[in-house]
Design brief:
The complex is a heterotrimer.
Chain A (H helix, E strand, L loop, with lengths): L1 H27 L7 H6 L5 H11 L5 H13 L13 H36 L4 H14 L3 H15 L11 H8 L1 H27 L2 H8 L4 H23 L1 H14 L5 H10 L3 H29 L6
Chain B lengths: L1 H17 L7 H18 L1 H4 L31 H37 L1 H14 L4 H12 L3 H11 L1 H15 L3 H8 L4 H13 L1 H23 L11 H8 L9 H28 L6
Helix pairs in contact in B: 2-4, 2-13, 4-5, 4-7, 4-8, 4-11, 4-13, 6-7, 8-10, 9-10, 11-12, 11-13, 12-13
Chain C lengths: L11 E12 L2 E13 L4 E5 L6 H8 L7 E9 L2 E2 L5 H7 L4 E4 L13 H12 L4 H14 L5 H5 L8 H13 L5 E5 L7 H18 L2 E6 L2 H7 L2 E6 L2 E7 H6 L4 H8 L2 H4 L33 H5 L5 E4 L2 E3 L4 H18 L1
Parallel strand pairs in C: 3-8, 3-9, 6-7, 7-8
Antiparallel strand pairs in C: 1-2, 1-4, 4-5, 9-10, 10-12, 11-12
Chain lengths: ~300, ~290, ~350
């Protein structure tokens, strides 16, 4: 019951953010220096063509009216027409969304899989050689551009060792996991560098807690104390850090999709830019924001599940 | 006895730590040295290499590293080392210019919001909430999509969004500090708001923002080179590391690793230098790093 | 009444226990040559001001110390030295042979696990039973320690429990492995006064019903006087006086014990007025020379400054580490006369 209330309040808090997101996406078009219609159509466009495009973009009305129209369209799930593909933006976005979701989810899973064991080892061997090496590794990883890491992976695992494909999405779950492994690992690496630092220090802090003494005095094994008592508490603050970095995770996919030629939203966004397909850019930006907000709610839920005290 | 002396002893210790000689702070020293070397190479690039950054030599294209070209040549026969050296000029700017701009605007906005509170604060925090709902890079890409690609527009895009972290950090600190005794004292003395903010509040709360500056510089150089890699930064034939990696990428299939590996290492070196300086500063100023 | 049980083999023998912590400021000798026996089925009190090494002594017994601590000496459980036992042997001892409950029940339970889980896992750690059986046993244990509505409480989280109830849960956890010895480290200090008494009574009741030995650590002589058979008084990492509770309280042979008694409202009333011990406990980084109590002691003479007194017999089953036995005996005699005259 409490958890439901928690979720409800959380959703309510999102209303102003949602309004803000639509305003930002709506106003984006105004950033274009000069007349967007002329830029889209070029200098030789006929006045009729200009007027028609202005009408279809809704630019012939006052600003507030345009925004109301924009909101009305959004409410109906209408993101406008792609200028490049001459199709509804919504259809094109929905077609590309699964690839991006795969990449995001896979990266998150890999990031956790990398983070947890390394953070445990570093925390247990605090200030010893292993800890220093892991610490240095996170420092290096955080300073590496992900697209470059991806290229190095390609050169080594795909071209030299030939064990992973260079690009593409793959068909079916197994094949997809295989195809997306390198791109996801690339996105996961920089995220886990952040998470390892955070989880390591919270494990170190939790290890000093009184209840760890109780657990040890019970005669539990060290393994159980770490996995069941320490880790579970330490993860609470790390989930918060993960929440803060969701934008980082999702944003990371944009670059990596372009590198590994994965037909996701990021790749679509880039191709739309060169085609001056502004409605498409707007639509994709909006979807990315929705994605961040959705994953944020997911982390909040995770948080509420891990920590029984959450009743905010 | 020890408890009575605790307070003054602690503050003395902090001062001693803060004025600790530079060589006792290996992170800061190493980072600063690394950055100075990169800056030196960037400045003296024309003296260090016989080639120009955009001089094509199609007869010597696709050459692996050799004595004449220690890092090889690219598909236009341009010397990779030369391009990396000249690229440092732009990439150091990518790391520092937008960071400096957002530092100033963010600190100011955060201080104003935190100090005055009320409506200004509410509006600012709403803007922050909305801005962090977008993935940072997506927002940058969207802005550049509207403004058009290029180094200047990249800086504008980062300047439009990047102030948020600073504003958040400083606002939080100011919220705490504005009820501190020294602020109340300044108010009783009848000082103007501007004088209180700049003269009294900011000097006391700015440390975390300074420490964040360096991690932000790392973030910006990674973002900037990524945007450039996506073709949204400086256009050809400019020598810039992200762009070089983009251009060299298609040749990894034929085993020409140097065109991509070398500029990436350059980014890594600058990133590590910034990180080390950041760690050193955090240590020096005794502030916990905030994410 | 337990005088005759002197011949029964002690269950726990502490021999010259020394525990020190390596800190940046130097080596802290928290426990410095402590020896005592615990007999089967007795409640043994360990009393002293905070920081005198009581907790460190308890923690040394089940080796629950941070990694920067080193322990020397012997801790013999039924004759087996625990300080040289292997990790797995030690795990079985903890909670199985010797359990421990801690000072602050608010932080000694894991906030994110159900209370039942935390009791049940203690059961499972020492008995090869399944999850279901362990939970059933946990229910019995909660009932045993007097938690109302145990079926419902098992499924709740620690934050839903009051301090006293949490301490009961911790006692239930400690009993899960049916230990022979219970180390109770200031189990009532963090609780409200009314709750303190309930928890003490619970510990005494359980000790009788289950026939355990208990080491009760407290800074409060009144608590010790109330429930213990024998007591050791600790000062600056050492035992300064030890014996039957009645003897030690009635005829203390160490000025520090006398000071503790004098600062106690109930028992110290005999001394007419409350008298805190002057000064503060010494730093264990650099303890005073000779008798560690001498800087605060009204009886101190030159000898006390240079020579460390040993714990020597001063009566049947009664030992004290003080050079000034003659002066103390004389003083106790005059007090007794004074008390008799006023009465």
């Amino acid at each position: 019951m409490d958890k439901l209330g928690f979720l409800g309040r959380r959703l309510l808090q999102l209303v102003p953010v949602a309004v803000g997101i639509t305003i930002v996406v709506f106003l984006m078009l105004r950033l274009i220096p000069g007349d967007p219609v002329r830029i889209i159509l070029g200098s030789r466009a006929t006045p009729e063509a200009i007027a028609s495009l202005q009408r279809s973009l809704g630019l012939d009305k006052p600003l507030w009216e345009q925004y109301i129209l924009f909101l009305g369209n959004l409410a109906r799930g209408d993101l406008g027409m792609s200028l490049l593909y001459r199709q509804p933006v919504r259809a094109l976005v929905l077609e590309r969304l699964p690839a991006t979701l795969w990449l995001v989810a896979y990266s998150a899973v890999l990031a956790v899989a990398i983070t947890v064991p390394l953070a445990i080892v570093a925390a247990r061997r605090k200030d010893r050689a292993v800890d220093q090496v892991i610490r240095g590794g996170t420092l290096l990883t955080l300073a590496m551009p992900s697209f470059w890491v991806g290229i190095i992976f390609m050169m080594f695992f795909s071209l030299r060792l030939d064990i992973f494909p260079v690009s593409g999405l793959g068909e079916g779950v197994r094949d997809r996991l295989y195809h997306l492994f390198l791109p996801s690992l690339t996105v996961a690496l920089s995220l886990s560098a952040i998470l390892i630092r955070s989880l390591r220090s919270s494990i170190v802090a939790v290890t000093l807690a009184d209840f760890v003494d109780t657990a040890r005095a019970k005669g539990l094994t060290e393994r159980r104390i770490m996995l069941k008592h320490i880790l579970r508490n330490a993860l609470i603050s790390t989930v918060t850090i993960l929440g803060v970095n969701i934008g980082f995770l999702i944003g990371g996919t944009v670059v990596i999709e372009n590198l590994f030629a994965i037909p996701g939203l990021g790749a679509l966004m880039l191709s739309s830019i060169s085609g001056r397909d502004y409605p498409m850019v707007q639509g994709i930006t909006l979807v990315f924001a929705v994605l961040v907000v959705a994953v944020n709610i997911l982390t909040d839920l995770t948080y509420a599940i891990i920590d029984p005290r959450v009743r905010l | 006895m020890a408890t009575i002396q605790a307070a003054p002893a602690a503050s003395r210790a902090t001062i001693r730590e803060a004025s600790r000689p530079l060589w006792r702070n290996p992170s800061l020293l190493m980072g600063a040295t690394l950055l100075a070397i990169v800056a030196g190479l960037a400045i003296f690039a024309p003296l260090l290499t016989p080639y120009g950054p955009i001089d094509q030599d199609l007869l010597n294209a696709h050459k692996p590293p050799s004595w004449a070209h220690p890092f090889g040549t690219d598909n236009f026969g341009r010397d990779v080392l030369t391009r990396v050296l000249y690229g440092a000029r732009i990439d150091l700017m990518i790391g520092l210019v937008p960071t400096a701009i957002t530092f100033v605007t963010g600190v100011l906005l955060g201080a104003i919001a935190g100090y005055y509170g009320g409506k200004i604060d509410t509006i600012l925090m709403r803007v922050v909430d909305v801005a962090v709902a977008f993935p940072f890079i997506v927002l940058l890409i969207a802005i550049i999509a509207m403004l058009g690609p290029g180094l200047r527009n990249m800086f504008i895009a980062i300047a439009l969004v990047g102030w948020i972290s600073y504003a958040r950090i400083v606002r939080g600190e100011v919220l705490v500090a504005r009820n501190a005794e020294y602020v109340l004292a300044a108010k009783t003395l009848g000082f103007g708001d501007a004088r209180i903010i700049f003269g009294h509040v900011l000097p006391n709360v700015i440390t975390p923002a300074i420490v964040f500056f360096m991690s932000d510089a790392v973030l910006n150089i990674l973002l900037g080179t990524a945007l450039s890699f996506l073709g949204l930064g400086p256009q050809a034939p400019t020598a810039e590391w992200g762009r070089m990696i983009q251009e060299g990428r298609q040749f990894i299939v034929s085993g020409e690793w140097w065109m991509t590996t070398i500029p990436g290492l350059a980014i890594l070196v600058v990133g590590v230098a910034f990180s080390l300086i950041g760690d050193g500063l955090a240590d020096l100023l005794r502030v916990e790093e905030r994410v | 009444m337990t005088n005759g049980s002197g011949e029964i083999a002690p269950i726990l023998q502490i021999r010259d226990l020394r525990t020190s912590f390596v800190t940046s400021a130097g080596i802290v000798r928290a426990v410095d040559g402590v020896s005592f026996d615990v007999r089967p089925g007795e409640i043994f009190g360990l009393v002293g001001e905070s920081g005198c090494g009581k907790s460190a002594t308890c923690r040394s017994i089940i080796r629950l110390l941070p990694s920067h601590a080193t322990t020397e000496g012997e801790v013999l459980l039924n004759g087996e030295d625990l300080l040289t036992a292997g990790a797995e042997a030690m795990r079985q001892v903890r909670g199985g042979e010797i359990s421990m409950i801690f000072q602050d029940p608010m932080s000694a339970l894991n906030p994110v696990l159900r209370v039942g889980e935390q009791v049940a896992e203690a059961v499972q750690a020492h008995r090869g039973v399944g999850r279901r059986a362990a939970w059933a046993r946990a229910l019995e244990l909660l009932r045993l320690v007097g938690i109302p509505a145990p079926e419902r409480r098992l499924r709740e989280y620690p934050y839903q429990f009051s301090g006293g109830m949490r301490q009961r849960v911790l006692i239930a956890i400690a009993l899960a492995g049916e230990p022979n010895v219970l180390l109770a480290d200031e189990p009532t200090t963090a609780l409200d006064v009314t709750i303190q008494d309930q928890i003490l009574k619970l510990i005494v009741r359980l000790q009788r019903e289950l026939g355990m030995s208990v080491i009760l650590v407290s800074h409060d002589l009144a608590v010790i006087a109330h429930v213990c058979q024998r007591v050791a008084v600790m000062y600056a990492g050492q035992i300064v006086e030890q014996g039957e509770v009645r003897t030690v309280l009635r005829a203390p042979r160490h000025p520090y014990t006398m000071g503790l008694l004098a600062s106690l409202p109930g028992i110290g009333a005999r001394e007419r007025y409350l008298q805190p011990i002057a000064g503060a406990p010494p730093s264990l980084l650099d303890p005073p020379s000779g008798c560690r109590f001498h800087p605060r002691c009204t009886y101190a003479v030159e000898q006390c400054r240079s020579w460390t007194p040993e714990l020597l017999p001063v009566g049947p089953g009664h030992g004290a580490a003080c050079w000034r036995q003659d002066a103390i005996r004389a003083r106790v005699e005059t007090t007794r006369i004074a008390v008799r005259e006023t009465a």
